[in-house]
Structures are given as C-alpha cells and as structure tokens.
Design goal:
Length: about 400
C-alpha cells in the first residue's frame, strides 16, 4: 500500500456527526512556541478559543497533520540506536473519528466509545491488522504527587481509567492491557503556561517483528486542574465539557501494513534515500538516513515558514541542526554540494508527496536556504558540520 491509499482510507473513516475537515496546521504555529509542531490539536484549539479550558461551542474537526519532533531526530535518527528503525524526522498524525470537543459534559462516555469503535474499525476491518497483536497501556490510578513524580503536589487519588471496557467489546483480552501509573497515560499538562484539561490516554501498541510499536493513541479529558497564580496546584475538579480523540501515526501503520523492517523504506521515502545513496561516493547507511530525514524536515519547514530569517531564535537553533546534519551528510558521503544536486533532492521529495503541493512550490526556496546555510556555517567557525551533526 502507498501512503496516498492509506491517507484516502483515513479521510473516509466514519467521523462523529458535525465533523469538518480542516487544513493541517503550519509547523510553525503558536501552540508550540520555540518548537515545530509536536502534536495534533493545539493549534486549532488555540485559534478557536484562545485557550484550552473554557470552550463556548462544540468544535469537531478532522485533518492529517505533519509533526516534527526534534528530540526524536537527535536521539534516535542522528545517534542511530536500536529503535531508530521506527523514527522519522517528520511524520503524519491523523485522527480516525474526529477530534471531538463538546459543551455537554454528559457526552464523555458516548464520544469515548465512538472514538475507540472508530479506531477498532480502522485497524481490524479496514486494514486487517490482527487484534491479538494489540497491547494497550492505560492509567491504573494513583496519587497526583506520585503520578506526576512531584511536578504537581496534591494529595488526590485519581481513579483508574474505566474506558478500557470499550476495547473489550471488540475482542481485546484482559492479557492485552498494560496498567501504567505515570503521565504517559494520565495527561497532566500545562502547555507553555496555558492550562489544559487533564485526563486519560491509551497508548496503542502493536506487536511487530517481536517488538511493540506505538501506532495510535486514544485520549479523553475528564478533569480541570485549578492552579493559583503562582502555579501551585490547588485542586482537581470534573471538567465541564467533553473531549476525546483517536489518532494514528500514518507512517507507523504503513510500515506494518507493508511489512517493512525500517520506516524509511516506505514508498514515499525510500526513493529519496536511494537517490542519495546512488550519488554518494562514500557509502554510509546511517549518514544516508540522517541526511534524508534532515532534508525532508528542511523542505517542510521552508514550505510552511518561508525562510530561516522568519524563524524565532529557538526555532532557528533547531533548524540549524537539520541543516548541519544535511551538510554533514553531503560532506561525509562525498556528494557534490551544488545547486543542481540540492534542487534535485528537494524536487524528488516533492514528487514523492504530491498530496502536499506546497512542497513543489517551495523547491527553489528550500534550495536557496540550504545553500545559504552552507555559507553561514562556513563563516561561523564554532559550527562543525563535517560528518553527521551531533
């Protein structure tokens, strides 16, 4: 299966009544100041309500969202550890049944069941995955202080997540649930100073080639944390609204469906990696992979954010790492660094992702930015780009 086919399946999944389709957020959005887009919902919720807690109307939407996680790139792609086979510099997240925010606090169970039903229908009926290979981490309950490892001090017992019962309706056995007692499964966030509702998260893993791979998530928000002005947690109350979502990592799913051992061998990535390998005078698989992913990130950032000069300081720092890695790859692999080669690589990347036409429209600018980065780093003696960047 190619990624276009999977995207069309995801677009056509049954959505909650009233769902509207929206364009993906710019990877430089206000939900993640200083970072590129890290998740699914923050940009739209902030744009719609100006904050996360007090919503004044129903808001239900669907999209496929590019995500760039800098830490994953540095820790797993550059360093090439045992888990690198499942990581990309940029990947897509897609909702299944819609991101569902409702004014009615009594809809929590209804939309939670709908979200889990939707993802089961996708995984088992549409894609034919074996439900016996599913492993679901869920929150087993606990004290706020212990669950947050002291980040929030409050003697309040959070109940275990009972929404796992909706999975059992689809034939998921008791031995497939993994109780967890951390913030991995109890969302207790305060995003860049913006308070958010708190609640439960299911980490949906699939046993593939003997390893568990995180392919999807289900989330429901049930609580409102009350803070004092100096950010001390004072109490937790039921949230007066309902919210849930089920979402999948598009490339992770495609990796399993296609039976590939490395996520960079997917049809919309491998030709770019293969071309870099072809024009390299020195063969180094790790450097080829890191260079491929760095170029893919650079292209998306420029397509969305237009130029290095338009980025804030912290985003510039991260963008320099991607440029540094790409330049290091050209150097280490002995690829001629010139406008023609750089433009060919960005052109191929755009051709492989025609569902994002903005990539085609930004080939020239991405090329200019990387050429200018090479000059910028050459003048800055503190920046070393010989070899894959650290």
């Amino acid at each position: 299966m190619d990624i276009k086919t999977l995207r069309n399946i995801l677009i056509k999944t049954k959505k909650y009544p009233g769902t509207k389709t929206v364009s993906p957020a710019n990877v430089c959005n206000n939900g993640f100041p200083g970072n590129f887009n890290l998740s699914f919902t923050e940009n739209e919720i902030l744009n719609e309500f100006g904050q996360y807690i007090d919503i004044d109307h129903n808001f239900i939407y669907s999209k496929i969202q590019p995500v760039i996680r800098y830490d994953d790139f540095v820790e797993n792609i550059i360093k090439q550890n045992e888990n690198s086979y499942r990581y990309l510099g940029i990947f897509d997240l897609a909702d299944v049944g819609g991101s569902i925010s409702l004014m009615d606090k009594n809809k929590k169970e209804e939309i939670s069941e709908f979200s889990i039903d939707s993802i089961c229908s996708l995984l088992f009926n549409e894609l034919g995955l074996d439900k016996k290979n599913l492993r679901i981490s869920y929150f087993g309950g606990g004290n706020v202080t212990n669950v947050t490892q002291g980040k929030y001090i409050l003697d309040y017992e959070l109940p275990a997540d009972e929404s796992i019962s909706y999975w059992t309706k689809h034939g998921i056995g008791d031995n497939q649930f993994i109780a967890d007692y951390s913030r991995d499964t109890f969302l207790s966030l305060n995003i860049y100073g913006n308070h958010t509702p708190w609640g439960y998260r299911h980490e949906i893993n699939y046993l593939y080639n003997g390893k568990l791979i995180d392919i999807a998530t289900f989330e429901r928000l049930d609580y409102r944390a009350i803070f004092s002005k100096d950010e001390i947690l004072e109490e937790i109350l039921p949230w007066q609204h309902s919210w849930s979502i089920s979402a999948v990592g598009v490339e992770r799913l495609l990796m399993i469906i296609n039976g590939v051992n490395n996520i960079t061998d997917l049809p919309h990535i491998k030709p770019l990696k293969d071309y870099i390998h072809k024009i390299a005078k020195v063969k180094n698989e790790n450097s080829v992979t890191a260079t491929t992913e760095a170029l893919r990130v650079i292209h998306r950032v420029i397509a969305d954010c237009k130029s290095y000069s338009s980025l804030g300081r912290r985003r510039r720092e991260k963008f320099r790492t991607y440029c540094n890695t790409a330049l290091g790859g050209f150097d280490e692999l002995k690829i001629d660094f010139n406008q023609s080669n750089v433009m060919d690589l960005f052109s191929l990347n755009a051709k492989l992702q025609t569902y994002y036409p903005e990539l085609k429209n930004s080939i020239k600018q991405a090329t200019v930015e990387l050429l200018e980065a090479q000059q910028r780093f050459r003048l800055d003696k503190s920046i070393k780009y010989r070899g894959v960047a650290q």
